[in-house]
Structures are given as structure tokens and as C-alpha cells.
Automatic annotation (TrEMBL):
Belongs to the PTH family. It is found in: Cytoplasm. The gene is pth. The record marks D101 as: Stabilizes the basic form of H active site to accept a proton. PROSITE patterns: PEPT_TRNA_HYDROL_1, PEPT_TRNA_HYDROL_2. It comes from Amycolatopsis magusensis. Its main location: cytoplasm. It catalyses: an N-acyl-L-alpha-aminoacyl-tRNA + H2O = an N-acyl-L-amino acid + a tRNA + H(+). This is Peptidyl-tRNA hydrolase. SUPFAM superfamilies: Peptidyl-tRNA hydrolase-like. Monomer. Hydrolyzes ribosome-free peptidyl-tRNAs (with 1 or more amino acids incorporated), which drop off the ribosome during protein synthesis, or as a result of ribosome stalling. Pfam families: Pept_tRNA_hydro. TRNA binds at Y24, F74, N76, N122. Its EC number is 3.1.1.29.
Length: 197
């Protein structure tokens, strides 16, 4: 299956992944939530509790009708709220865009793709299981590999470092731009514009 434009012409479910609550707010694992906060600011709206199991903001972005979704569950149970929102808004898997942290990319690097494996990411594994397919869009925000022998599971639950935080607003802004480019121009154009090198 080869799809370029998410949910051509219909509603989009745009899910950002993270863990709920103030304890996790600045974690690398919450990059998806942070990007959605930037998009919500651009839309001029606020998230509201939704029966699908997430915090949802409906509106328009890049000329498309979107529902921004932040699951209220923990990361490894993200699939329920994302699939619930897709059902509620009558969106097929190709109308789902997931923004998440990615260990296999340098900090701040972006990659956009359609389909593929979960690469050990529990949030993606849960979403693939709940949607019954891996054919949905992903916007991957690079958080880099952990230093030395640190366990990746511990690393992603730590806040961005002081050095990383200096560039964080800029990187989140760029990732939000990439999401808008994906919705407006399609996957290939967004990849060409935002993939480095």
C-alpha cells in the first residue's frame, strides 16, 4: 500500500504520543505531546477531555479538518485512545498521523514515513495492534541514543538536557511545520523538505 496524502480530503486524526501528568511533561518520550502543544497554539485552541480516552482539540490545520489527540493512557497503551478517536471521527488508518520520539535519529532530526515496524517503540506497537494495521503515517522526532550503557527505557523517561533545551523550541516548531507540510502537500514533498541530507 502506497499512500502520499493522509486521509485524502477527509478528517485527520493527528495523535501525539507521551505519558500523562506533570512528572513526565518534559521527558524525551513526550516529544509527541510537545509537538501537539505547538500545533494547538497555532490553531488557537485548547485540548478538552474526550470520550475516546484522550485530550482532543478539533479544528483546521493546513487547510484540513483535524482532531489533535493526546492519549490519557500511558505510552504503552496509546493504541486504545488513538483507535477510539479514529472510530469516533470515522477515520481510516491512512487518515491517522502519529507524532513520536525516535531513538534512532539524532536529536532534532525528523523523518516522515507511512507504515513500517514499531522499532521497539511501545506506543507504536500498541497503536498498530489497536488499528489492526501498520499502515498509518508517522512523524518521527529524533531524541538520539542514550549515552554509554544507559538503558533506552530510562533515557526516554528523562527530561531533555540543558543543551537540548536550548534548541527544543526551534526543533518542535520545525516538527510542527513538517506535520503541516504532510497534511497540505503530502508525504513525498514533506520528506523532501524536512529530511536532512
Amino acid at each position: 500500500m502506497d499512500v502520499d496524502l493522509p486521509g485524502a480530503g477527509e478528517q485527520i486524526v493527528l495523535a501525539g504520543l507521551g505519558n500523562p501528568g506533570p512528572r513526565y511533561a518534559g521527558n524525551r518520550h513526550n516529544a509527541g505531546f510537545l509537538v501537539l502543544d505547538e500545533l494547538a497554539a497555532r490553531m488557537g485552541g485548547k485540548f478538552k477531555s474526550h470520550k475516546s480516552g484522550g485530550e482532543v482539540l478539533e479544528g483546521r490545520l493546513a487547510g484540513r479538518k483535524v482532531a489533535l489527540v493526546k492519549p490519557r493512557s500511558f505510552m504503552n497503551l496509546s493504541g486504545g485512545p488513538v483507535a477510539g478517536a479514529a472510530r469516533f471521527f470515522k477515520v481510516g488508518p491512512d487518515g491517522v498521523v502519529v507524532v513520536h520520539d525516535e531513538l534512532d535519529l539524532p536529536y532534532g532530526a525528523l523523518k516522515l514515513k507511512f507504515g513500517g515496524g514499531d522499532n521497539g517503540h511501545n506506543g507504536l506497537r500498541s497503536i498498530t495492534k489497536s488499528l489492526g494495521t501498520k499502515d498509518y503515517f508517522r512523524v518521527r522526532f529524533g531524541v538520539d541514543r542514550p549515552p554509554g550503557r544507559m538503558d533506552p527505557a530510562d533515557y526516554v523517561l528523562k527530561d531533555f538536557s540543558t543543551v537540548e533545551r536550548k534548541e527544543l523550541a526551534l526543533n518542535l516548531d520545525r516538527c510542527a511545520d513538517a506535520v503541516e507540510a504532510l497534511l497540505e502537500k503530502g508525504l513525498l514533498a514533506a520528506q523532501n523538505a524536512f529530511h536532512a541530507g
